[in-house]
Structure to design on (41 residues):
């Protein structure tokens, strides 16, 4: 992901049935709620 046309964060998750839910949860915590990186993980 980029912010102001600069690299900001690279993220991913392990495979599995809930991969999309884990990724969404992480992104929502970081982008919308401002949760610290370590906490969002």
């Amino acid at each position: 992901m980029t912010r102001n046309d600069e690299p900001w964060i690279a993220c991913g998750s392990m495979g599995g049935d809930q991969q999309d839910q884990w990724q969404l949860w992480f992104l929502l915590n970081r982008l919308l709620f401002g949760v610290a990186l370590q906490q969002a993980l």
About this structure: The chain has a mean pLDDT of 86. Residues 16-41 form one domain. The two ends are 16 Å apart (CA to CA). The first helix runs from residue 19 to 31.
